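Below is how a single chain appears once it has passed through the pipeline. First comes the sequence as given, then the structure the pipeline wrote out for it. We keep one example in the README because the format questions we get most often are answered faster by looking than by reading.
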Amino acid sequence: MATTGICAMLEILAAYGVRYVFGNPGTTELPLNDALTGEPRIKYIFGLQEVPVVAMADGFAQASWSPGVANVHICCGLGNAMGMLYNAYRSATPLILTAGQQDRRLAFEEPILWGDMVAVTRPWTKWSAEVQRVEDMPSAVRRAVQTAMAPPTGPVFLSLPLDVQMEEAELDLTAPPLPDCEIRPPLAAMRRAAAVLAGAERPAVLVGNRITEAGAVDELVAVAERLAAPVIHEAFTTHGRCSFPSDHPLACDILPPWSSAVRERLAEFDVILIAGMKIMQLYIHHEPARAIPEHVRLVQIDDDPWELNKNYPLEVGVTGHPRPALAELAACLDQVMTPGQIEAARARAAAHGERRALVREAARREAEKLRQRRPLAPPTLMESLARVLPDDVAVIEEAPTTTGAYLERTGALKNTSGYFAQRGWALGWGLNCAIGVKLAWPDRPVLAIIGDGSAMYGIQGLWTAAHDNIPVTFVICNNREYKILKDCAGTLKLPGAGAGQFLGLDIDNPPLDFVAMAQSMGVAARHVTEPDELSDAVRESLAGDKPQLIEVAVRQPE
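Resulting structure:
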């Protein structure tokens, strides 16, 4: 039976388990919207602008670890979406971004809205293509899904000419199973890695997002426990996901963002295992430029060979999927560690556990010391949230100067899967990522902690939450400024910043009223000023069945 190009695309996506298409339509996308009226397996999540649409698909993909599909308008809509595509690229999200293209019969005349979208998206995708024949649509969709999901994962883009979407043909709609990508590492490399790590006197682990995304947290815990190695997440600038239990005795604070501070932090170690992390993704240049001290020997495991020896020479580099690689590393350590090394590891574990308990207690004491300040100080705000978080909560944050990794530093985050933070830094992502996460995990409570500046880049997502009754709790931390930029201006030692003078970094004249904005889009909202009031409001909202927004004034202590 003949089918249209766009119906073929939907049929194959549905066969791969796609449940949602996140979209904002224009004329060239109307065949998709029309076809979805007769497709019960896929729900269209309507967003009012492309930033929310693509960020929602990103959040859904990261939580479900399945393709997140977004459809945006031709060139002008794609332009709006590019910041969120960049986020997906930096996060290695398995995102499939599509856009309608002008009818091919008009293309030579360079009609309205037409443009070379493939060239525009190519730098920030694994694969970008325009489907030129309806007969190629099934292969294009199959290739898009497999490319997005194959390690190293990442976004893809398809440009869909209007006439190709509407043309009919007899098409092969087979959706073959995706290849098993859990490639085992070479055994010889694993034995070398185990020997180097077992011989360390002061080992550590640097961990990145992709351990969680690879489903390898338990395997990493097993390796860290054998070595009694403290586990340090990458800096907040690239942290993204949580890949080690924050309440584990071997969990440590995240890396600082500057090379000089990283060198100081890592100087105590002699061997470092790096897993699921790119080395190093720095932010503002500091001297010394090399973040890892020269005496430290490095062992790295990664499923992307490009990451091995890329910026720092390795003692051992291992190519393989993190889950089988870490499982085999643990087994190799069992074989090579001597009784003396095992005993030394036990002593290290006890010492690390004691230090970690002291750090957690100090963070909570600081929050209590600031409890009487108004507006709320960030540690007080975060402690008010920490005390009411359910164990299975998903936390999405785009407010780094407020959150300060508090939930991890205090061990308040009781699961590793449910933490999402920025990796690309195109703002407007967090509020909308939370909506996608909730659609992926309808049975888990979802809390979005968002800065006021970040929220304004994607505030239209509140309408979608209300329209589809997606029960996310949005906490807007309103400090009336771009605090992170003021901090960076100080780091750069800019003269105006040193004198307390800033241009374009304050959001207070007039002040933003997020409660009024949320209510205008159908989301229940309230202001809170007291710590206990915040705890009660968040507890109630997380247990509810509707989206709610809570605005909190926040101010850093002098």
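The domain at 187-357 is CATH 3.40.50.1220 (Rossmann fold).

See the next section for the split statistics.
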